[in-house]
Design a protein that fits this description.
10 strands, globular, pyruvate-formate lyase- activating enzyme, two-stranded antiparallel ribbon, alpha/beta, 8-stranded mixed sheet
């Protein structure tokens, strides 16, 4: 069966360039869309809930790369290229490209490889190419395929693990288990691809808070990624989890409880060397550092803020964002 059909949720019609949603560390990258939406569109907390994945045609993506190359070399702007391409073209100075959208790794493998080779042919001095990926994306790829991607400079993937607790994963309809997430991560690591793993504080609600934190620390330790980041759950209208909260079936943790979860995750983690942060705009308080080297300092910062219990020391609600 053709790969496009096997994935089922793909639609190559009416591709619209997605809004720029990217990891904090990719703020200087050039953003090249290959998809719009997410193939794993059932997550009960996510703004992509119910979205329809759309796939960009290979020729269209390559035409954007060609236009960029022409612009960088000669300053010529083509009339059939969207203005945003030229607005973000200076980001190529970072020698980094981020493939949009929410799980660009779902792009059919031979076509993805074709685009990566085209990018490298036009911009041979790139340092790296990166993308979001779901655990399912990694599970459907062979080690050899992942190595091919890595050899074409797709060297870091951002994976939303969200939780290590199977009960939480099932509740939020992640469609993967703790064991499957670990299997997916291990495939990427075997291929030599660096991982940046994100988890979500508060996803277990009040009742499941402690177990969520401990099990998430466990899966982070088992994956042992190069980078890790914590977000704080923000309820999105129209999602199942939002409705549960409105109906009283899901108790959202308080801001200080989110910091207690973060402390537990850091305390119970065991990494070789992982740069871990809570710098995302959804969080009420930010810590960052390399674990395990800076674990003591990070825990002390959290203990200090938790012990004071002063809401004025936290990021204001209106300043939080997805």
């Amino acid at each position: 069966m053709p790969e496009d059909e096997r994935y089922g949720t793909m639609n190559k019609e009416s591709f619209q360039r997605p809004d720029i949603v990217r990891p904090p560390s990719e703020w200087k990258s050039y953003f090249l869309p290959l998809t719009n939406g997410c193939s794993n569109n059932t997550c009960a907390f996510c703004a992509n809930y119910g979205s329809r994945l759309r796939i960009r045609e290979v020729d269209e993506a390559k035409a954007e790369v060609d236009a960029l190359d022409l612009y960088v070399r000669s300053g010529i702007r083509l009339p059939n290229i969207q203005p945003i391409v030229y607005e973000i073209a200076p980001n190529l100075g970072s020698k980094r490209i981020f493939l949009q959208d929410s799980d660009a790794l779902v792009y059919p493998f031979p076509k993805l490889l074709e685009i990566l080779r085209h990018i490298n042919g036009k911009f041979p001095d790139l340092e790296r190419i990166s993308a979001y990926a779901t655990p399912q994306d990694l599970l459907r790829r062979s080690i050899e395929e992942l190595k091919d991607l890595k050899d074409n400079k797709l060297t870091i993937l951002y994976v939303g693990v969200e939780s290590g607790d199977d009960d939480v994963l099932k509740h939020v309809r992640k469609r993967v288990t703790h064991a499957q997430i670990l299997e997916a991560a291990n495939k990427a690591k075997e291929a030599g691809i660096a991982l940046s793993i994100t988890v979500i504080l508060g996803l277990g609600g009040v009742e499941g808070s402690h177990r969520h934190a401990i099990e998430t620390a466990r899966i982070l330790s088992e994956i042992d990624p190069e980078f890790g980041g914590a977000l704080t759950l923000t309820l999105v209208p129209g999602t199942p989890l939002y409705k549960e909260a409105q109906d009283g079936a899901f108790d959202l943790i308080t801001p200080f409880q989110s910091l207690e979860e973060l402390r537990l995750m850091i305390e119970h983690s065991s990494f070789t060397s992982c740069f871990f942060s809570s710098m995302h705009a959804s969080n009420y308080f930010s810590v960052r550092g390399t674990l395990p080297r800076e674990k003591g300092r990070m825990i002390k910062e959290l203990d200090d803020i938790i012990s004071k219990g002063d809401p004025s020391l936290l990021r204001a609600e209106f300043m939080r964002g997805l």
